Fold each of these.
Amino acid sequence: MLIPKEEYSRIQAVLPILCVDCLIIYHARCLLLKRTQEPAKGLYWFPGGRIFKGELIPSATIRKAREEVNLECNFERIISIEETIFTQQGDMQFDVHTVNVCCQLSVSNISDILLDNSHDDYIWATPDDILMLNLHPAVSSPLLKCFNTYF
């Protein structure tokens, strides 16, 4: 169910938002996208976003992967629950608080990858890239958990 933008802004101003983060794995690498919008503008992050009422976590991850990067993925497992609080900056109207269910997804074909308008670059990160990229803890923590337990 889509909420009109104005109403969603009022909700976001006073409540945490429940989101999924999609750790899409391909050949022992994880897809990270460079954000073009606040919060976390200019940073590498996972594809993902809010969960709709009545939508199950696995379905939300598959939907977000399709919407943000045009990939058909398979849900594997929940890695962790993370939390972010972004202080108002740039064009943000208020602080943003999210609770993120970080989930591992697999993909067998990446030839159709296509970024949405919220991202302008992507990388397939290895475990060695995690430290070099200076990632937000809400990204590096589930990445390390995923790489340490799966590979």
Amino acid sequence: MNLDACELNRWELFRREQKNLDRAGFVQILREHPAAVILDVRTKQEFSEWHIPNSIHMDYFAYDLLDRFEEMDKNLPYLIYCRSGRRSVRVCVLMRNSGFKNVYNLDGGLKNW
């Protein structure tokens, strides 16, 4: 085992595989694609305290999260965010694995908003 090598954790590997955007990139996608869907994947309480205008709440911890993907148009762009970026990365992975092509992650979540 090479102790000098620093392995990346699984979350960081997943994050690097996503289309990660900063705030300006997020806003640019919204301008270019007015039909884009903004998904807030935080808890209901977090969402009620504050959210990006026009966001749809879709709790990462909800039992029916994957079922809700079935009702969504896979051709639309989706902008996903949470508080820090960890949940949104996981949702992006799940959505891409479910056939969504245009999925964007707010890198760093609302902490970087």
